[in-house]
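Worked Example 4.2. Consider the chain below.
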Amino acid sequence: MNNKAVITIRNYETSDKQRVFEIHDRARPIELEGSCDPQAFIPLQDDKDDIEDFMASRKFVACEGETITGFAGINGNIVSWLYVDPAHFGKGIGKKLLAVALDQIEDEASTYVLDGNTTAIALYKSFGFKLAASFETDNAGYPCICQKYTLPG
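Applying the procedure from the previous section yields the following structure tokens:
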């Protein structure tokens, strides 16, 4: 008997908001490790800039049965969101979400990643993304280095 979980991807629905926020808030501190001061963490519902970007993005959710385990978003040709619940790491959810997001982008895709987020960088590189730029910025007022990756269309 195969006990491997079946992961499905569907369009985001408004009723998914609370669970998606929870996933972001569980995964974001891990994203900040080695990239930025942990105090840069702001819950998604309290981050005015990110909420605006979140609302403007076309979003998809990954589900294991009825449980939402991750989400991705695109805004134009930018992969603007990609988070997986840490309780579900290692199941290929990020890969499935990224593949669906890229299927929706017609031109050169791009994304922005904190320089210390080695897991995300490895995922994007595995899809053929290349480092296009690296720049200093801030995250909630804390300095960090951000990298832009592109994938030719």
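The two ends are 40 Å apart (CA to CA). The first helix runs from residue 17 to 32. Compare this with Example 4.1 before moving on.
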